[in-house]
Every structure is written in C-alpha cells, then in structure tokens.
Amino acid sequence: MLRIEQLTKTFGRNTAVDRATIEVDRPIMLGIIGRSGAGKSTLLRMLNRLTPQSSGQVYFEDREITALKGAEMRAWQADCAMIFQQFNLVPRMDVVSNVLHGTLNRRSVLATMFNLFPQSDIHRAIDILERLGIAEHAPKRAEALSGGQQQRVAIARALMQDPRIILADEPIASLDPMNAQVVMDTLRRIHEEDGRMVIANLHTLDTARRYCDRVVGMRDGRIVFDGTPQQLTTGVARDIYGADAGFSEAATSTAIETLDATQRAEIDAARVTV
Ligand SMILES: Nc1ncnc2c1ncn2[C@@H]1O[C@H](COP(=O)(O)OP(=O)(O)OP(=O)(O)O)[C@@H](O)[C@H]1O
Ligand SMILES: [Mg+2]
C-alpha cells in the first residue's frame, strides 16, 4: 500500500533522514518515535511532499508519489492531510470556517476570497464536528477552545479533505495528559472506523505502545527499529533514544498511563462518540 524506499534528505552536510525504508501493506496506525532531531518531521514532510527528498522514492498503491508534479502533487497532498503540534488553526476565525478551510484545495480563488462555502460543505463540517464531540463549539473563535478541542478542530479540518492518510506531527506534544488521551482516542477511532492510515510522530514511548499497530524508531536519521509495540522493549527503546544515563521510561512518557481512576472516568464521560 505504502512503500518508502531509501528515502533520504540532506541539509548541507547534515543527513536528516538517511535511506529510510518502510513498507506498509494495509492501513495501519503507525507510530514514529525518536529523540529530538532524529528526522521524524522531515520524514513525514517528505511523505506529503512539503519537503522535497534528496533521493529515494515513495509509492502509494504502486504510484510513485515522489515523482508527482503540479495538480497531481496537490491532489496527493489532499490525500494525506497533516496535523501539527500547534494545531495551525486561524485563531480569530470561528471553528466551522477553520474546518471548511480543509476544502480550500478544491475551491476556486474567487470563492475562497469571499469565503463562499457550499451549503453541503457546511453541513459536512458540522457533521464531522459532531462526530468528534465538539459541534457545540462550532460558532466560537478557535482561540477560545482548549488545546485538546483545538486539535480536534484540526482533525476535523483534515477529515474535510477525506484523506487516505492522516499524518500527525507530534499531535499531543502541547497537550496535558487528559487532552492527549482524547486526541489519541480520536485518531485511533478514525483509523478503525474509516480505515484511514494514520502515521504519527510521537515524542513518547507509552503513547506509541498503547495506540499504534506498529512502531518505527529513528535515530540520527536512520530507522533503527521497526516492529510491534510488544517488541518495543525498554532495551530497544534505550537503543532508539540513545543509551545515555539520562534515559528513563518516565522521561519519554506523556503520563497518560499515570492518570488516576477519577481522571480516567472524566475522560470516558467526555469521550467522543465517533
Ligand atoms: N529546514 C531545515 N534546514 C536545515 N536543517 C534542517 C531543516 N529541517 C530539519 N533540519 C535538521 O534535520 C534534522 C532532523 O530534524 P527533524 O525536525 O526532522 O527532527 P525531529 O525528529 O522531528 O525532531 P523533534 O522531535 O525535535 O521535532 C535535525 O538535525 C534538524 O536540525
Ligand atoms: Mg519534529
């Protein structure tokens, strides 16, 4: 389904991603972990062609993505929606309009200038917000929402594109453990119920283990681990993060696992009904 072959990115003399090879045969939820600077974001950005590769190829269903140009490349970028650590919403704009911006790539310049959205798109945006449990916030400015709610708006905007893949670059790195769990649950449900592939860069081991079907570990641009969460032992993790004295599981934990029973119950109560 997705084949990444010897994908490489160099910045001057620095090799950010070094001959990364990953093959995925069905739409799984894939986690990418590694310390800061390991090359996770660069790898993700090459997948949706935000960053041009230095060498290597990406294939999706046997089509070479790395060779696409112009309109075909933009169509691919719509097929793989990206969400970011900082949500990248327009803060002063209302939630629905933010979500509707997920359709910009297929709208005319004129319609965009005048903020003219087809009624059907508006309905779909509200349906998606409902699905993610945030429809009540639809008329509010994005900046009035909590981080977890804003990230769900960003996911809703991504879903407007009806993407095949959702690329998430540290989607929970700015969130507290409770919101982190709600956002990861949301991504997992979208994956399971829509059959969309999710590829998420994650700072933390526990999240990768808990939510992903498969985890890739990067170190200094290279893939040093590719396996199941069960295979991701503490020893392997030490190898990915570097065996310096500072390594500890706790240091790479979002503490989702450390929530107490009351907090978990609160999350369950607020749980999105996707
Ligand atoms: N635009 C750029 N110009 C020059 N060097 C870059 C650029 N983008 C990334 N790099 C370098 O490439 C390497 C990989 O960076 P990247 O952002 O992919 O790492 P990361 O694993 O996402 O880190 P983090 O966890 O901090 O987000 C780093 O050494 C970084 O400094
Ligand atoms: Mg990064």
UniProtKB/TrEMBL annotation:
CDD domains in the record: ABC_PhnC_transporter
Classification lineage: Bacteria, Pseudomonadati, Pseudomonadota, Alphaproteobacteria, Rhodobacterales
Pfam families assigned: ABC_tran
Protein name, as recorded: Phosphonate ABC transporter ATP-binding protein
SMART domains: AAA (SM00382)
Keywords tagged on the record: ATP-binding, Cell membrane, Membrane, Nucleotide-binding, Translocase, Transport
GO molecular function, one term: ABC-type phosphonate transporter activity
Gene that specifies this protein: phnC
Any one of the GO CC terms: membrane
Top-rank lineage group of the source organism: Bacteria
InterPro entries: AAA+_ATPase (IPR003593), ABC_transporter-like_ATP-bd (IPR003439), ABC_transporter-like_CS (IPR017871), ABC_transpr_PhnC (IPR012693), MetN_ABC_transporter-like (IPR050086), P-loop_NTPase (IPR027417)
Domain ABC transporter positions: 2-245
